[in-house]
Design brief:
By secondary structure, the protein is mainly α. It is 71% helix and 0% strand. It is built from 13 helices and no strands. The protein is globular and about 60 Å long.
């Protein structure tokens, strides 16, 4: 009772003290803030790994396709490398959110939270929303790191020589639009992958097994990319490999239908399917009893 009272002090005395919409917004905001506070050590580890990797890319960057590369060329070349897109970024991001729902279940927080929010749907919506915010923070942080490292490398800012920029320009697209699309694909892609991780964690009831399953899937994706590149259009993690999208890549006619539009629809379908499967899993759980 003391623990429940403490939660009521934190959330408010009754579940009806805020309106429906404001209560939903409060729950999402609270969950995001709680995510940052609870995972600050993990955030430090993840960003330390990002810093280390960006410095290594600073030291060993060498793209034979680009003469006199700029900061933007360095950014798009390393940021969308197959290892970064298909293994490194998904593995690090999933490390941040792998126990997003399990933490509440395992630490007996769920019944106390449900005593305040209107329904388990509100709780689940807050978790899904946190996936987006975590992806946004992760991608924006990585972009800032890569641009900073490129600047420290002494690269200029006034040219766009990467083939992705050149092919995009031939189709009337500005470099800024291409950069914007790449960032959107990353944020949306990681959010979709996060929803898949959320469902797997609820199904497996183990953050370790979930993370290992995710990493194993990224390795298999890389193997598919190396063995049969045309098949990457069906691989979730390959959707993040922006520089392989047509028209930004025109080296393989079999990939001409692998476009940003394709990846957008693919990731949306993955997100919706994972959210639905996760909700089914939540509906089957007796959250009070489990806690």
């Amino acid at each position: 009772m003391e623990r429940r009272s403490g939660v009521k002090i934190l959330f408010g005395s009754t579940r009806h003290s805020t309106g429906g919409d404001s209560g939903e917004c409060f729950m999402i905001t609270f969950d995001v803030v709680l995510f940052i506070i609870r995972n600050w050590t993990r955030l430090l580890i993840v960003y330390s790994l990002l810093v280390t990797f960006s410095i290594l890319s600073f030291l060993f960057f060498d793209d034979a396709e680009i003469k006199n590369p700029s900061v933007w060329d360095f950014f798009i070349s390393t940021f969308t490398h197959q290892f970064v897109s298909m293994i490194f970024f998904p593995a690090l991001y999933s490390l941040l959110i792998v126990d997003l729902a399990l933490h509440d279940l395992m630490e007996n927080y769920t019944p106390m939270i449900l005593a305040r929010v209107s329904s388990r749907m509100s709780w689940y919506t807050a978790k899904v929303s946190t996936l987006f915010y975590a992806a946004f923070l992760f991608v924006v942080g990585a972009v800032i790191l890569w641009l900073t490292v490129g600047s420290l490398k002494g690269l200029p800012w006034d040219s766009f020589a990467h083939p992705a920029f050149q092919y995009g320009e031939q189709n009337g697209q500005s470099p800024w639009l291409i950069i914007f699309l790449m960032i959107i694909i990353y944020i949306g892609g990681l959010t979709a992958i996060g929803s898949l991780v959320l469902w797997l964690s609820l199904w497996l009831r183990s953050s370790i097994l979930t993370w290992l399953a995710l990493v194993s899937s990224t390795v298999v994706s890389m193997m598919i990319y190396n063995a049969a590149p045309p098949l990457i259009i069906w691989v979730p993690f390959a959707q993040l490999m922006f520089k392989m999208h047509f028209p930004y890549y025109q080296g393989d006619p079999d990939l001409y239908h692998f476009t940003v539009g394709w990846s957008g629809l693919y990731l949306l379908a993955l997100f919706l399917l994972s959210v639905i499967l996760g909700w089914i899993q939540i509906r089957r759980l007796d959250l009070i009893k489990k806690a």
